[in-house]
Each structure stands twice: as C-alpha cells, then as structure tokens.
Amino acid sequence: MKKLIPILFSFFLIAVFFNCDKMPPRPQIDNPLDPANPATGGDPFDLELMLIGGGIKLQWNAVDLPDLSGYRIYRSENPDSIYYNLLDETADTLYIDQTAQNGHQYFYLVTAYNYLGESRSSTLTPIQISSLPYFALAGDAEFTATHIVTADILASGADSMRISYDSVWDSEPWEPYALARICTLYTTPAAQFVYFQAHYPLTNTIYAVIDSISPLPLTPQMVVGDSSGFSDTSWVAISFSDTGALSARLWEQSDTSDAQVYSPLTDTIYFELSEDDGEKILNARLWNDYFSTLLSDTVILDTRADILQTTHDGVGRILAYGDILHIEMLVDYGDENGYAYVDIFDNLGNSRPGILLENMGGGFYMLDYFISNGDDIVDGTLVSYFTDLAGNQALPDTTEGTIDIAFHIENMVFVPGGFFNMGSSRALPMADEIPLHPVNISDFWISQNEVTNTEYTEFLNDGNPLYWDNRMEIQFFPINVYFEAVDSLADRPVRYVSYDCAVAYAEWKGMRLPTEAEWEKAARGTDGRQYPWGTFLPVNSICNFYSSQDPFENSAYKTTPVGFYDGSVYGSFMTFDNASPYGARDMLGNVLEWCSDYYSATYYSVSPVNNPQNTAPGDYRSVRSTSWYTTWIDTYTMNRDYYPPSTKNNLIGLRLAMDP
User: Fold this and answer.
1) CATH number, domain 17-128, options 3.40.50.20, 2.60.40.10, 3.90.226.10, 2.40.30.110
2) 522 burial class (0-12, 13-18, 19+ CB within 10 angstroms)?
3) Taking the CB of residue 600, how many other CB atoms lie within 10 A of it?
4) Which residues contact 303 (CB under 8 A, 6 or more apart)?
C-alpha cells in the first residue's frame, strides 16, 4: 500500500488511522435478524467505515426484515453516551457523514425498522480521525495511468489550502478550502509526490501532509479474434487485458499511414483487415501518460474455401466386399488443414455418407476406402465437402463417373481369415493387454450392429420368457405372455443380459458369441490401428462414451440407437462413420459385449497362434468393446474387461458371430 508521509513544518506530525483495537462490546440484545451467524458475528449489517475526502463513508449489507421501511443511522462520540440520529430514513445501504471533523472519535450504528418499530441490529463500529488534515490522491490509489488526478481532502476548520509538487511553497497561491482538488502531476515515469497545506484561522496555524502515487506500468496482452490464428471475416475483434493503457494506435503490416487511434481504450475494439486472404501482421502501440509499448500478433484471413478437384477410381468397376475405392480431393487458398469428407449415394435412396478423408498436407486429402458391409450402390454419385479451420464451407463438388457397389448380407459383415497382431503396443498398456502377439484367425462373420431390443424380443416371444429381466427396455404383458420393445428404445442395444442369456440367444439364431481374438480383429483389422475408424482419438461425433454429448446423453437410458454413428446428421449433431475396416459399427462405445472366452489376465502369454480361445474354466467371462460409461481415454480396441457370467447390468449387451 501507498504510504501517507507526514511533513513537519514546526507545526504538528500528522497521521490518519482507523482504530480497531478498542472495539466496544457488541449489544447484549440477541440480534433477531441474524442470530449466531458466524460470518457476521450475529450482525447481518456488517457495517464498514472508511475515511474519505469530505467525511466518513458508511456502507452496510441489506437485511431481510418483513415490510422493511428503511434504515436509521446513529452517531456518538462516546459509546456510553447519547446517540444522535444522523439520518432518520434512507432506503440506501451507503451514507457519507459530511459533518465529521478532524480530531474526533466516532461510534456508529445502523438500525432497520418497519411498521412495528425499530430493531437495534448492527454492532457499534468506531473510527478515529487524526486532528491533522486528510489528503489522498485518486481515492488513495497506489497507481495512476493519467497525470490528472483528484485529491480527496478533509481538514475541518480550515479556511484555505494550497498544493505544491516539489515542496517549494513560496510561489504557490492560497485558495479556498475544498473537499476535493484536481492535481496535475508530472509525466515523468517515477513516483509522484504532492504536498498539501491547510490554514486554520482560529489558531492561525498551518498543517502540511504529503501523499504519493506511482505511474501505472503497462502490462498489456493482445488477442486477435478467437485466438485460433484464423479469421473468416475482414473485421476482427482485438481484445486487450491488464493493459494499464489509456489509448492505442493500430495498424496492419508495416504501413502506419492508415493507423487508427482508439481513445479511451476499451477491452475490445474492432479492426478491419486488408481485403486479400493471407497472413496479416497487426501492430498496436499502447500508451498512458507515462509509458508506451509496442505489441504485434498474426492472424490468417481466410474468407473462402474451394474444392479444386475430387477424383476416384471407381469408374467402370463393380466394387465388392474387400475392394478399395481410391478417393482424392484437392482444395485451394492454402487450406492445408480442414475437414474433407464425401458422400456416395444413388437415385434409389441408398447411400454411404460421411466418409472422412485423411489430410496429406498442402491442401491434398486422400482415402483408400475399404468396401465393407453397407448399402449397395447402383450408378452412384460421389459428392465431396470441405470445411476449413476458419469455418468456411466450400461449395459441394460432384465428381464425374458413377460408382457401383454390390455387396450385402443382412446384418452381418465378413471378416477374412489371416494374421493380425493382437494386444497393445501403447506406451503404457494395461497388464492384461500384453504381450503384443501374432494371431491367425479363420474366416468368420460378425454382426454389423449390437443385438437390439427388437431382435431380442423375437427370441423371448419364441418360447424363451425365462431370459427376460424386468429392467430391460422390453415390456411384458402377462395376460397373453407377450413381450414388446419400448417404442422409443426398440433400436437400442439390449442390456441386462447375462452370459447364459447371450449364449441362448446366439444358439436360437443358429450362431455363437465371438471369441476375444475374433472380436479384436473385426474391430481393428490388420493395420494395427487402435480405433475401428482409424488413428484419430475418440471425439463426440464418432462413438458413445462418457460425456460424449450425443443427443441421448441426458436421457435416462444413455445408449444410442445401433449404427447411429454412420456419417448422418441428426438435427445439429453431425456423426462420422465409426465402422471398422470390415464394416462392423459401434465396436467401441454404447455397450460392452460378451465373448465366448473365459477371462485370464495372463492368457496372451500362453495363447496359441491359430484361433485362440481360452476354454480353461474360471470365475469370469471376457467382455470386449467399451460402453457409454467408459471415459474417452479408455476407449480403444485393445481394452479388455471381465464380469461373472451371471452379471446383468446396464453396461453389457451382445454381438453375434458365425462360421462361413
């Protein structure tokens, strides 16, 4: 804090202080408004006093009194003497006592009253004023950005005063005493001292005090736009914080001829960039009455996005399962980063939407699209889309040449046999995910989606009522022993199925549960990816995990419809295709899935190379995938889990497998 420095001119030493040591005891009457409130000591008013120029400022909290009429203020110079009513009625919670005089000690209290009368409420609060003048620059502030400040003054009994900036009084004229005085400081970047003298006619004495204030340093920070480094409009918001500046001068590049001056400086100003897209260097000179500084920041103006060309190699081919469709996209205007994707559709309503291309750099995007299970496409059209980092959306581009895809087996996808590396190569794997080891799997089929409530209902209605659980999203009508999936949840994955329920359903379908090795190959393919869709981390639009912010996040059921993440747009929520290399969806997220293996944390160390399946009896069965309750960091294909086979909960469902 700034010091108040006393000066002795053969008169008196001066000091201004608050006395907090001799607090009188609080009233003996219990406070009816706020009894035993530890924050206020039973005093809801929490009355505060402050010495300011012209008097004493009282400020208190508003109190909750039924039919409150207002407040009254009392003052005494002795806590045991009569209290005088300073103000009989006010609705405000702030009052300035302008009758206070130097050399006195005052005690104040505030009461609240209504039509029933007055309630003595606040504690007695004392303040003692020195007999010498009170003089404070800029409200007793420590720093100032401007060299013109107001001084607050209290020198009761004085008739005149004078100000000096260098303690030389001979040339300074006397002026009438006032409660405030404008002071014009030097603009040198150093602490400023102002000397004050007051003349008291009754005693023909002069008292002097000194106060100081320092120039406010410049500590500016400048942020252009949303701090992303890009702007899709020539008008950008420039934000300043903690500046200490009064004014600013802004210009672009090195040309100061069009510099704009902003005074007074606000937290945010708007500046128009030159028209051409590209990198812009913004410069700002900020200053106050004492200091100036230069800042600069860079922003890339990007007002458009264009797709120059999209090509594919599907012309003249009939693409079948396992084939590769090579897609390339070239964009312009330096959009080396952005989001490029394509839709494939035909006039029959069939489509394969939301195919995300990989950024190869230099505005070039590419993908070798694996033809997996999905809609057949007849004379299809490929339309490409691009959005850059500034938010500009290019006009969709329709490529020349049709695409034909002819592969479809209802609700199942084919996984060709062969080797893949099973387990984790992560830097910090879980103990049961290692070692990474080669596994050879025979051809098999696996469900494209998790088993739904509707599909499981067919099983229950076919003479299998004992496999129903009353927590399922499936209603039971006991009169005719009939089951029906809840309409709004019919396409959600069935849950509350034990391992035995899952096996019974699979056998009823003429299928089986997948082994852990089959499940992992169907999820990640043969290229070592950690996620079914590729290499990038789980995002809100790719699968259902904890706090994934999908449209069903805040519902009581948490799951999403099976196959929900297929590249479609649902209202304002856009999804990306989360299909695995073979076309299986939701291999991560939504629900866990029973596998046929017994669980062993060390099985990877002893498992055979060909078609491994742990058949050694144990207390737990393996489950794979992750659920709506799994955090994003644990959402990856190598993640293993286990439960007792009797477990029925809202996290576990199932997916089927079958041999060719």
Assistant:
1) 2.60.40.10
2) buried
3) 18
4) 232, 233, 234, 277, 390, 392
Residue 606, amino acid: V
Neighbours of 599 (CB within 10 A): 21
Q: Which fold has domain 221-301?
A: Immunoglobulin-like (2.60.40)
The tokens describing 483, both together, are 């089951």
Strands (E), 357-422: 358-361, 364-370, 377-388, 397-398, 403-405, 412-415, 418-422
- pTM of the model as a whole: 0.43
CB 147 within 8 A of CB 290: yes
CATH topology of domain 431-658: paralog of FGE (formylglycine-generating enzyme) (3.90.1580)
> How big, in percent rounded to 5, are the helix, strand and coil portions of the chain?
5, 40, 55
Which residue type, as a one-letter code, is found at position 327? Answer: I
Helix axis angle for 499-508 and 453-461, nearest 10°, is 70
Instruction: Identify the residue whose tokens are 């293993």.
Output: 640
**Which residues contact residue 611 at a Cβ distance below 8 angstroms, ignoring those fewer than 6 apart?**
440, 441, 442, 515, 517
74 neighbors 39 (Cβ within 8 angstroms):
no
What does the pLDDT look like over 459-499, one tens digit per residue? 999 999 999 999 999 999 998 889 999 999 999 999 999 99
